[in-house]
Write a structure and sequence with these properties.
alpha/beta, 11 helices, 7-stranded mixed beta sheet, Rossmann fold, disordered N terminus, 400 residues, globular, 5-stranded parallel beta sheet, 14 strands
Length: 400
């Protein structure tokens, strides 16, 4: 309920009128409002802007087809400023003031984990596009759904690639000391032990530091064959530039996506040439074989001037899910939309098939990419590969 009737005894007709007005204010709007929480400013702003591009394309397509329930879709954005406390405030604002029946977001795992209790208490469905920390789903809330795969799947896919491409035996993990980084560290630590890799070093760091050379030198001293990063874009850029400075030369530079799979990472806005040969997980590329991938790439590039990474596509995908659920529900009631999301089955989207299990998780394939000549190329699994991986990564002193 978005508002409460007075506890005083009211004439029956007056009470009924008040409750009808409170029941679903969004249905009385001239537009169909959908709430979005993402990071439009702060350290994660590049990803929030990618979200916004994906949402914009989806809204334009859906509105051109008639919108939802006969109304044009209006996205109501709340900028969480890359901060979990702001993300939580966004839930209250979007639900209590804007009367949205569903929320999409957030971007970071830290912010998304923070809003799960809030949407559950408000009884409004949450569709998660990108947060990969598996603990965002561990509450078991019936109001929460995630289209992307999580940190456990990232670790398994990376280890499968390594096993079949050189079979290294030693590993170091370098991760941001946040929910996102800790979840990926935990997933890779546990999966690596089961796979028989010796964990030589684990290094947690504080985000947005200007200098990581000391921890990189500690990792270098352990001489791991594989380094696995869990970092956002700013830190991924700094880490790779400083890895070259200290001469850290593992056979494999690998990563849990995010900063290492951002569209900006291999460009001058990111690590540029220092990104070359890095291997990362990805959930989508413009070259993906799913119908509509190329068209989305063209639309996004026209809109923003740059090619998208998977973060933009995931935003696009959750809006497709929202539209399918609202059409199935036939109304703007949050509970009806939630129940419809549970039964959504979209076998042919540009993000691949989308269908949620009993825990609200979509099963999505994870790709392994390597940056080769400044471009992300799929190198694993073999049936999806478009290039052979370059292993080992050339030492820094032998690169052009």
């Amino acid at each position: 309920m978005r508002c409460r009737a007075s506890k005083l005894l009211l004439p029956a007709l007056a009470a009924a009128a008040i409750l009808a007005g409170c029941k679903n204010a969004s249905e009385q709007s001239n537009t169909f409002k959908i709430g979005v929480i993402t990071s439009l400013t702060g350290p994660a702003a590049a990803f929030g802007q990618a979200h916004k591009g994906g949402y914009t394309i989806a809204v334009e397509e859906l509105n051109a087809r008639g919108g939802l329930l006969g109304k044009q879709i209006e996205l109501v954005y709340y900028d969480d400023q890359s901060r979990p406390d702001q993300a939580v405030q966004g839930v209250s604002k979007l639900v209590d003031q804007d009367h949205v029946p569903i929320i999409l977001g957030a971007y970071t795992s830290e912010n998304t984990r923070a809003i799960v209790p809030a949407v559950t208490q408000k009884q409004v469905p949450l569709l998660i596009p990108t947060a990969v920390a598996d603990n965002v789903m561990e509450t078991g809330s019936p109001w929460v759904f995630r289209v992307c795969e999580g940190s456990g799947a990232y670790a398994r896919a990376t280890l499968d690639f390594l096993k079949n491409n050189g079979d290294p035996k030693t590993l170091a993990i370098i991760y941001e000391n946040t929910n996102f980084g800790q979840a990926n560290d935990k997933s890779m630590h546990e999966a690596a032990e089961k796979a028989g890799l010796k964990l030589e070093d684990e290094e947690a760091y504080q985000a947005s530091s200007p200098d990581y050379k000391t921890l990189l030198q500690r990792a270098k001293a352990k001489n791991p064959e594989v380094v696995y990063f869990a970092s956002y874009l700013l830190d991924a850029t700094t880490l790779m530039r400083q890895a070259a400075e200290v001469g850290l030369n593992p056979r494999y530079y690998t990563a849990a996506g995010t900063g290492f799979s951002a569209a900006e990472f291999p460009t001058d806005k990111g690590a540029g040439a220092y990104a070359e040969y890095t291997i990362s997980v990805s959930q989508w590329l413009p070259t993906a074989k799913w119908k509509g991938s190329r068209e989305f790439d063209e639309a996004f590039t026209k809109l923003t001037g740059s090619h998208p990474a998977y973060h933009a596509m995931e935003a696009y995908a959750v809006l497709l899910v929202t539209a399918a659920a609202v059409h199935k529900a036939g109304n703007a009631q949050p509970a009806a939309i939630r129940d419809a999301i549970r039964t959504v089955d979209l076998p042919d989207t540009p993000f691949g098939p989308i269908k949620f299990d009993e825990h609200g998780q979509n099963a999505h394939p994870v790709l392994i990419t390597q940056i080769l000549k400044g471009q992300y190329r799929v190198v694993w699994p073999k049936d999806a590969a478009e290039a052979e991986p370059v292993i080992p990564a050339p030492p820094w002193n032998k690169r052009p």
